[in-house]
Design goal:
Layout (H helix, E strand, L loop, with lengths): L5 E4 L2 E2 L5 H12 L4 E9 L4 E8 L1 H18 L15 E10 L3 H18 L4 E5 L10 H4 L7 H4 L21 E5 L4 E7 L4 H11 L4 E2 L20 E2 L6 E8 L4 E8 L7 H14 L4 E7 L4 H14 L8 H12 L9 H4 L1 H4 L1 H4 L8 H9 L7 H24 L8 H36 L6 H30 L1 H11 L5 H26 L5 H33 L1
Parallel strand pairs: 5-7, 6-7
Antiparallel strand pairs: 1-4, 1-5, 2-4, 2-5, 3-4, 8-12, 8-13, 9-10, 11-12
Helix pairs in contact: 1-2, 2-3, 6-7, 8-9, 14-15, 14-16, 14-17, 14-18, 15-16, 16-18, 16-19, 17-18, 17-19, 18-19
């Protein structure tokens, strides 16, 4: 699942009663290709609906803009009332990094969204959290202070000039806060007790806010205060964690209910482990846990790797295997099945994220290749052969990490296997990227060529697509070449029973490099840029020479070891 950047958007709209209005807003979101609507959660008492959708950055901010625009047309804030703090038809619109994107990058997209909305819509926009333009606007509560009713007067204060949009009161739409923040996970941990009081004692141990300090450390002791009369607190173990104990009648057990507000500061598995420790000290046992809603893939992979490392086992295994270890270690299937395809955001989005070739069966892939269609062709096959080659080296590393008598070597072999998984995933991504590059050329060739402008546009598109069709197999060469370091090491010091596997891996890696080289060669002949072609072919020939030499070295080591 490597490669694509994913962000989540969770706009809150000030309407929770009339679902026809919300439906019109979410329809705007679902019109945008590349975005998936995950959840619509209306609240009558708050008269507010929380909508969740995910996708790549540009489609997401386009969908967010259209939703904000539609909400401003349909929701009249002058008639709104509800229990939740609010200041606009679209009250808040946070962007959340999910995969392959940093918070800093996400904040830049939040600014792009606010800038566009501010220029096209007659609404004041404020930036908050990681996208805040100044420190005093970082906290949403500060930005929203005074709410809708105090907005007109607030906008008259120069200190509260909007980051984007007019500094004037829009009685219908109000104002909107756009920001970038961390992913929040709602997480419950199950205990072998029915006591809420005992569950709360664990919650106080764990949560950042901890508990009030009392005289003598006794439950009913007098609350200790500082010189100014403020109650003193004993901080809990986990920063960015809110927690409370409660009893769930449906399950007949008490739980620690947590909100993990920064999973970088306190990952899910750390909160779980600290709860296990606290429960043990208090005579209780954690029996399992549950994730409410969806979770990013990274959270599950980090947890699985953590528990594998505790067992001194290789972490260089497939995503699905790592996730399985995480589910079993955290007891996520205690109260009901945990289906990764329905609980992990990236897997929920697999129809949009996954590529058409690498998720086919072997026979279907072979049938596609053998058909009369020119794609997939040699470039895609080269990338796939390279993925198979490095997979064999990764297998040797994993077998070596578990070999009896080599317990002191597990960690070094695990690192090799991890490297192999990264190379394998990169090559699998290139399988489809090569076919996509070929299709781009076909699309460019079919472009209109009637007017002089159309002809020029078509030629430029063909040129750009051709360069991409050269760069992709060149990338296959470079990536497959990385396999040889791993294969050499496994041939020299890996499990001796798997020597032949390392040798076959080297054969595949060299075939991948050589096959991709042929694609660079044939695609270069259609490009007029002589300097680019000369430079690229020189680099490609150098890579091929290195692969041929490396293959010979690995095979010599393998054959020597077998004899």
């Amino acid at each position: 699942m490597a490669g694509k950047q994913l962000i989540e958007c969770v706009p809150n709209f000030s309407e929770g009663v009339d679902m026809s209005i919300i439906k019109q807003i979410t329809d705007e979101i679902e019109k945008i290709e590349g975005v998936k609507l995950l959840d619509v959660d209306p609240g009558k008492a708050t008269n507010r609906t929380v909508v969740t959708f995910v996708g790549e950055p540009y489609p997401v901010i386009e969908a967010a803009f259209q939703a904000i625009k539609k909400a401003s047309e349909l929701i009249d804030m002058s008639k709104h009332s509800g229990e939740h703090p609010r200041m606009g038809a679209t009250d808040v619109c946070p962007l959340i990094p999910i995969a392959n994107i940093s918070m800093e990058e996400t904040a830049k997209y939040a600014v792009k969204l606010a800038e566009r909305a501010g220029s096209e819509l007659d609404i004041p926009f404020y930036l908050y959290e990681s996208a805040a333009s100044r420190p005093e606007r970082k906290n949403l509560a500060t930005v929203r202070a005074g709410e809708y009713e105090g907005l007109e007067q607030k906008l008259e204060d120069p200190k509260w000039k909007p980051d984007y949009g007019p500094a004037k009161f829009n009685p219908r739409a109000g104002a909107t806060a756009i920001g970038a923040r961390d992913f929040l996970i709602a997480y419950n941990i199950n205990l072998n007790t029915t006591s809420v009081r005992r569950a709360n004692s664990i919650a106080f141990d764990i949560r950042e806010n901890g508990r009030l300090k009392r005289e003598g450390g006794k439950i009913n002791g007098k609350i200790l205060k500082d010189k100014k009369g403020n109650p003193l607190r004993q901080k809990g173990k986990c920063k960015s964690v809110k927690a409370i104990g409660w009893y769930i009648e449906e399950y007949g057990v008490a739980q620690i209910s947590m909100n993990l507000t920064n999973i970088v500061v306190t990952p899910l598995h750390v909160a779980f482990e600290e709860t296990v420790k606290s429960a043990g000290k208090r005579g209780m046992r954690v029996t399992g846990s549950e994730i409410v809603g969806l979770v990013p893939l990274k959270v599950m992979l980090d947890a699985g790797r953590h528990f594998l490392e505790k067992q001194e086992r290789s972490v260089g295994i497939s995503e699905r295997e790592i996730i399985h270890i995480a589910v079993k270690s955290l007891g996520l299937d205690e109260l009901g099945p945990f289906d990764p395809d329905k609980k992990i955001i990236e897997y929920v989005l697999k129809d949009q994220m996954q590529s058409p070739l690498i998720h086919k069966t072997l026979s279907a892939f072979a049938d596609d290749t053998a058909s009369e269609s020119p794609a997939p062709g040699g470039g895609s096959i080269s990338a796939y052969v390279g993925a198979l080659g490095v997979s064999l080296g990764t297998m040797v590393a994993n077998l070596s990490s578990h070999k009896r008598g080599w317990d002191d070597k597990w960690e070094s072999f695990s690192k090799v296997a991890e490297e192999g998984q990264r190379i394998k995933d990169a090559l699998l991504g290139l399988v489809d990227e090569d076919t996509h590059a070929f299709n781009q050329i076909i699309t460019a060739i079919r472009m209109a060529k009637g007017t002089a402008e159309e002809k020029a546009s078509r030629l430029q598109a063909i040129n750009d697509a051709t360069i991409n069709a050269i760069e992709v197999p060149l990338k296959v060469m470079k990536t497959s070449l990385k396999s040889f370091g791993l294969l050499k090491r496994m041939a020299a010091s890996g499990n001796p029973n798997s020597l032949s596997d390392a040798g076959v891996g080297a054969l595949c890696a060299r075939a991948a490099v050589h096959g991709a080289y042929l694609n660079v060669l044939i695609n270069s002949k259609d490009l007029d840029d002589g300097k680019y072609v000369e430079k690229t072919l020189k680099e490609a020939k150098k890579l091929l020479k290195q692969a041929i030499t490396a293959e010979k070295e690995v095979l010599a080591t393998v054959e020597k070891g077998i004899k």
